[in-house]
Amino acid sequence: MLRTTATRSLVKSFAKAPTSRSSYSAASSAFRNAAPLRQLSNKRPQVLASLPRPNIGPVLFATNKAGPPYDVIDTKSEEKVAEKELEAHPETVSTASSAIPVLERGPQKPDDADMMAGIKADVKTIKETFSLSEVPRESLYIGAAGVIPYAATSLSTVYLAWDINHAHANGTGALFSPETAHQLLDWITPIQIGYGAVIISFLGAIHWGLEYAGYGGYQSYRRYMYGVIAPAVAWPTIFMPVEYALITQFLAFNFLYFADARATVRGWFPAWYSTYRFVLTFFVGASIVATLVGRGQIVRADHNLKSPVAYLKNDRDAQWEALEREEKERRSALEKDTEEEDAEAEEGEEEEGKDEGEDEGGKEGDDEKKEAN
């Protein structure tokens, strides 16, 4: 009835007569020295015997305290708790409130705590990124000063857009008239586009400077190409329409940031340069987006918004109209002078005729007097 290895070996030791040991081969020796397997039925798959068993060593009993439950019992505290009367709170009882797992892997933190820890870690990363503690002070101050023109032009564009929309809604602008706001906007936008072309060219030239200095080794055309691509993309934008120019410069700034980040990983730039470029590119990109949004709002409110090309065309047309008006006024003045001269000439001829008539009449009277005498 007891089918175990120990019982079978014990029974065989009493019933079996001692016999001489037969010779064995290498195969039988390996078989005899093999580790004994668990006695399983032939119908069961033998692979189950080799499956790893779960490790239940660190499993702890359910407890509200951190660490093992085998603490020293405080009898005084137990007596105080025993003297208190239990209070019933049926509103807090549910089908799951009394169900406590028998086994658990120690006290676990709630999900809210884990989520807040992740948020705090993200906030810490953002603070470390924007603090730029490793950037040299000179580069940090000059870079921050370089962002000021972008921020000023974008904020001016947004305000002028609001002022133009306010004028269309209320009849008058808050600070400027619609015509003045349009003129200021036509001055500010080319300044922003031209400044962006200069900065993009400067970012490409940094690669040339570090190549000349041999920082990170000499990379030849792999580094020189960035100094060629940057101005080749930047300067044609000053001839594009405003929206296309701003979008092209936005893409150029982002392309150069990714190129500089890869170069930093390769050791072509200092370790702090990629973070420094990320922060500056973030503010420049936000300024460009603000300018595009502001101009988009103006286009929806005022369909007469003109580009710099249209403004120059209208200025040229106005100059031609002024020239034509001056020519007409000059011709009319000449005609008036001619008419006045003709009128004076006619009056002079009439006066001369009168004088001649008077002279002839006087001569005839003298002749008649002479004849009478």
UniProtKB/TrEMBL annotation:
Keywords assigned: Membrane, Transmembrane, Transmembrane helix
Keyword Transmembrane helix assigned to the entry: answer is yes
Q: Would I find Transmembrane among this entry's keywords?
A: yes
> Biased-composition ranges for Acidic residues?
337-359
Q: Name one Pfam family in it.
A: DUF3429
Q: Which residues cross the membrane?
A: 140-162, 193-212, 224-247, 275-294
Where composition is biased (Basic and acidic residues), the residues are: 323-336, 360-373
InterPro entries on file: DUF3429 (IPR021836)
Annotated stretches, region: Disordered: 323-373
Q: Which PANTHER family match?
A: TRANSMEMBRANE PROTEIN 69 (PTHR15887)
The protein in question is named Mitochondrial inner membrane protein 1
